[in-house]
Specification:
Blueprint lengths: L33 H12 L5 E4 L5 E4 L1 H8 L20 H16 L6 E6 L5 E14 L2 E16 L11 H4 L7 E3 L5 E2 L7 E2 L2 H5 L6 E3 L2 H7 L9
Parallel strand pairs: 6-9
Antiparallel strand pairs: 1-2, 1-5, 3-4, 4-5, 7-8
Bound molecules: zinc ion.
The site of zinc ion (ZN) has 7 residues, from helix 6.
Length: 232
């Protein structure tokens, strides 16, 4: 559930989050630190791609309309909205660690610069590849916040990408009863062959509440490396 509607700013109470002091001034023009945030918000609000402003701890301070729309159609960052931590929206430790490294790399430098990862945001019907581009909001040479833009770089019928398995929960429930699903590609681990992960649309549409979301070996290999434009 979103804490705020889009277009609003998260205004943390002093000492209640990792937000930078400048964030609380983001709607005003009285301090030099506030100006980069104001400019970033104006730029993000005008974007067609889902985009948000974060503090250096990954707390969402602003999200544009496209960000919320994407979350509603099974993409983006689900139910974590303004005031929430971006990392809390990521099921699967591999993708969480990758986004954590991405935020640290862009925010803390040395020499803050943009970097990205590409992840999957699949639905029962669509196979989507989405690039998460994180850029620093600079005050002088120092990063005081981050912008994140999600860009859909490929969207295909899921059957063109994965061999789809029509099965039920009972077919995939292991002996311990806990279904294991990749939070990135949404494939489900096969109970009889733990090395095999299958795309089962019914389990993507309605995973049980106690599903354990992990990051499958393929997604770790394909999607969890952070890249910057001038990486060799
Ligand atoms: Zn996966």
């Amino acid at each position: 559930m979103f804490l705020r509607t889009s277009g609003q700013l998260h205004v943390p109470r002093p000492g209640t989050s990792g937000a930078q002091p400048g964030v609380r001034m983001a709607g005003r023009s009285s301090t030099p630190r506030s100006r980069p945030f104001t400019a970033a918000i104006h730029e993000l609000a005008a974007r067609a791609d889902p985009a948000a402003l974060l503090d250096l701890e990954g707390v969402i301070l602003f999200e544009n309309d496209a960000w919320e729309r994407f979350a509603r159609v099974g993409g983006g960052f689900g139910e974590v909205g303004v005031g929430g931590r971006l990392l809390d929206a990521l099921p699967g430790e591999g993708e969480r660690e990758a986004v954590c490294r991405l935020i640290a790399r862009v925010g803390r430098g040395p020499g803050p610069r943009a970097a990205s990862i590409t992840v999957e945001r699949n639905t029962p019907d669509l196979a989507r590849l989405v690039t998460l581009l994180v850029s620093p909001v600079l005050s002088g040479n120092e990063a005081i916040g981050l912008t994140i833009v999600q860009r859909i770089v490929r969207e295909l019928p899921v059957r063109e990408v994965y061999q789809v398995v029509e099965a039920t929960l009972e077919d995939y429930r292991p002996e311990d009863g806990v279904l294991r699903q990749c939070g990135c590609c949404r494939r489900t681990r096969h109970p009889a062959d733990p090395a095999e992960w299958d795309f089962v649309p019914a389990l993507v549409a309605a995973p049980p509440a106690d599903t354990a979301f992990e990051t499958c070996p393929l997604c770790r290999e394909l999607h969890c490396a952070v890249t910057a434009p001038d990486d060799r």
